[in-house]
Amino acid sequence: MNLPPPPDKAPLLQEVTASLSAMPDPAASGHLRRFEDEAAHALGTAHAVAVSSGTAALHAALSACGIGPGDDVLVPALTVIMTVAPLRALGATPVFVDSDPATLDLDYEDAARKVTTRARAIIPVHLWGRMGDPGALAAFASEHGLAVVEDAAQAVGTVRNKRLAGTVGTVGCFSMKDGKILWSGEGGFLTTASGRVAEHARAFRSHWQPAPPGEAPLSRLATNSRLAAPLAALALANLRRLPDLIERRRAQTRYLLNALERVPGLTALAPAAGEEWNGFSPLLHIGLPSPRAFAEHLAQQGVPNSTGSFRLVPCDTRPPFPRPEQPCRGTAEILDHTLAVVLAEGDTQATLDHYADVIAQAAAAWAP
Ligand SMILES: *Cc1c(COP(=O)(O)O)cnc(C)c1O
């Protein structure tokens, strides 16, 4: 098995050069418009709105769903702090929901126990590109009258039961930070079928100017979270390579998991039935003693991974939030036992061979 070389980068240089020759351009609209039109087309949604980060996309999306002070928003503890920060910025309260170690999907029994009369929205997070059951999500949201804001930052291209990640809910939020599959250095965008949500997001990213139809410009306080022109050019060029970028990540993940197939104590996590996973991060169950220490040891040995390198812990236990009465145990179990290797487009076969060697040797010698 051989890993093909990464897709050609020449188109990126062409688009960025074109955007530079039009700068400075306060309207900065050319590449941005084209990116939004083509992103909406590529994802099969009516609207896409580009912003400066995935965090900003979540912020604009939650604002467009009317989330504000006094509202509760259900969010899995199995996520990064970036999912939760924008809802706190809007004055809402996160209600952390557990996840099921057998599926990585939301634990809907826990969600049903925790849903309050103040709950207005739920944020499913497709962590590591893995997507929960869209039917279960839609049923839960409609039963409880919740808006669905998907955090699809890592999930571009994942499909489950023929539903594309980011197009299941009211709004889908994507990040284009380097390291995500579709990247522009920094950046993000949201997708929605709702013209009203898209107009709100366009106003919100630019201090309510232009305002949505029927409203006065600057009549509300908002943010500057516009995407800079050269980054919109990068985003556009990468969007046109998106099928190749997804195939690249899938091939890298297949390659590494294949190389680790017979390592004792490590078992690849398979996607669900009906899930076409984007392969965001090779995922392995760590069946060794002190599994989190093993992931940290690998990080020290130069194999970047979610828990070892980035100290990913259940979000309900993080210091900004009150200490939970009942911590999300399923989430802790998932994070303690999952090795999620962090990949980049430029990682070559030699990089992955090196990772595989380090992981196999560390597992064989592991005596914590
Ligand atoms: C990257 C990421 C974000 C935040 O995106 P930024 O562009 O870094 O602001 C949010 N949620 C998840 C799951 C992410 O991976």
TrEMBL record:
GO terms for molecular function: pyridoxal phosphate binding; transaminase activity. The modification N6-(pyridoxal phosphate)lysine is found at residue 180. The keyword Transferase applies. The keyword Metal-binding does not apply. InterPro entries: DegT/StrS_aminotransferase, PyrdxlP-dep_Trfase, PyrdxlP-dep_Trfase_major, PyrdxlP-dep_Trfase_small. Its cofactor is pyridoxal 5'-phosphate. SUPFAM superfamilies: PLP-dependent transferases. Pfam families: DegT_DnrJ_EryC1. Keywords: Aminotransferase, Pyridoxal phosphate, Transferase. The active site is at 180 (proton acceptor). GO terms for biological process: polysaccharide biosynthetic process. Belongs to the DegT/DnrJ/EryC1 family. L-glutamine:2-deoxy-scyllo-inosose/scyllo-inosose aminotransferase subfamily. This is Aminotransferase class I/II-fold pyridoxal phosphate-dependent enzyme. It comes from Streptomyces humidus.
